[in-house]
Design goal:
Layout (H helix, E strand, L loop, with lengths): L3 H24 L2 H21 L9 E4 L9 E6 L2 E8 L5 E5 L1 H13 L7 E2 L3 H14 L10 H14 L12 E3 L13 E2 L6 E2 L9 E6 L5 E8 L9 H19 L4 H8 L13 E10 L9 E5 L4 E10 L1 H5 L5 E2 L9
Parallel strand pairs: 10-11, 11-13
Antiparallel strand pairs: 1-2, 2-3, 3-4, 4-5, 6-9, 7-8, 9-10, 12-13, 13-14
Helix pairs in contact: 1-6, 2-7
Length: about 350
């Protein structure tokens, strides 16, 4: 158990971080017009993109980003690793562009034998072979070493949270990742936070690992900001990772209080045509997702952001590493009691 002085020290560090984030955002107001532009483009593009339909291949996930401004290109990932791109033209034609170099590097001779063209129609025989290859690989995923274990964890968590019901094997109900054009994505921020101290970085800021909507135990809908780590070690403890999550959460609070805040609120909360104003008071869940461990914690705590009329609710969500290796999730931590059952 932490001493009173240790708890006060963590509180002081967090207060300093939050103060510095607000100062950085205030001194660099360019983000306001930029994020207004992002959401206006999303709203304009959403209707056109929502009319497009094509089957998502088993074992592969589609990703988009706010920088893909026309909604015509998508990143195709296997277990979090990019393996190709999808292009959709104005007439609905779909093309696959495999990432030959990295695919050959990670899947060796098996992939090279496919002899994939540089571009191919999505309905072609070659694209069918490509999909079949990764469908087979998805059943061997735990034995394949890919470039980024954290991207793998992120992808598996996104797919877990995206399940609809317990009948699909969903472990934590009442949580859904925010999606862009019905694809997974990371919301960018104008802040660097990887060293757990905020730095303004304009277009080159870090992205939120998982931005989600949750139903809390009190029945209200909340935004949840998740920061993921595939390790739980003393030199990057849960308390340290929480600092990074808090930096991004303070940005979200500022974004929702900006001129374009109402549009962002309705996009994040998936309101569709049933738009609502941003609540007078905001509650944002701030969650670290890590393997079980015993590092220093900052959790089960509330942080008031008076300037944004917002409270950050800081929690832990741990996963069992052994179960994860075996292809399933079991969760523990303070956040498991905060989501509606």
């Amino acid at each position: 158990m932490k001493t009173k002085n240790e708890l006060q020290n963590l509180d002081t560090q967090m207060e300093s971080i939050i103060y510095n984030v607000n100062v950085l955002l205030s001194k660099n107001p360019e983000w306001k017009s930029r994020y207004k532009g992002y959401i206006l483009n999303i709203e304009k593009t959403m209707t056109r993109v929502s009319r497009r339909r094509f089957n998502k291949p088993e074992g592969l996930s589609l990703y988009s980003s706010v920088s893909r401004r026309d909604g015509k290109t998508y990143d195709l990932r296997f277990d979090g690793q990019s393996v190709g791109e999808i292009e959709v033209n104005d007439k609905g034609g779909i093309r696959l562009i495999p990432k030959e170099k990295s695919n050959k590097e990670f899947f060796k001779e098996e992939y090279s034998e496919l002899q994939m063209p540089k571009k191919v129609g999505w309905s072609s025989a070659e694209a069918s072979i490509f999909r079949r290859f990764f469908r087979k690989k998805s059943r061997e995923a735990n034995s394949i070493k890919l470039k980024s274990p954290e991207h793998q964890l992120e992808n598996r968590l996104l797919k877990e949270f995206a399940k609809k019901t317990r009948a699909e094997g969903k472990v934590l109900c009442n949580i859904q990742p925010v999606r862009l054009y019905n694809c997974f994505f990371q919301l960018p921020t104008p802040l660097k936070a990887s060293e757990h101290t905020p730095e303004y970085s304009c277009h080159r800021g870090g992205g939120i690992d998982i931005l989600a909507r949750v139903q809390s135990v009190d029945g209200n809908s909340r935004i949840c900001v998740m920061e993921l780590k595939d390790e739980n070690k003393n030199n990057e403890s849960q308390a340290e990772v929480m600092k990074q999550a808090a930096i991004y959460s303070v940005f979200i609070a500022n974004l929702l209080r900006s001129e374009s805040g109402s549009s962002w609120w309705n996009f994040i909360m998936n309101r569709g045509s049933k738009t609502k104003p941003v609540p007078e008071y905001l509650d944002i869940d701030v969650v670290t997702v890590m393997p079980e461990g015993s590092t220093e914690e900052f959790c089960d705590r509330k942080i008031d952001l008076q300037d944004q009329s917002c409270t950050l609710h800081c929690h832990t969500l741990y996963y069992n590493r052994k179960d994860y290796i075996n292809g399933k999730f079991t969760f523990s931590g303070t956040y498991t009691s905060q989501i509606r059952k």
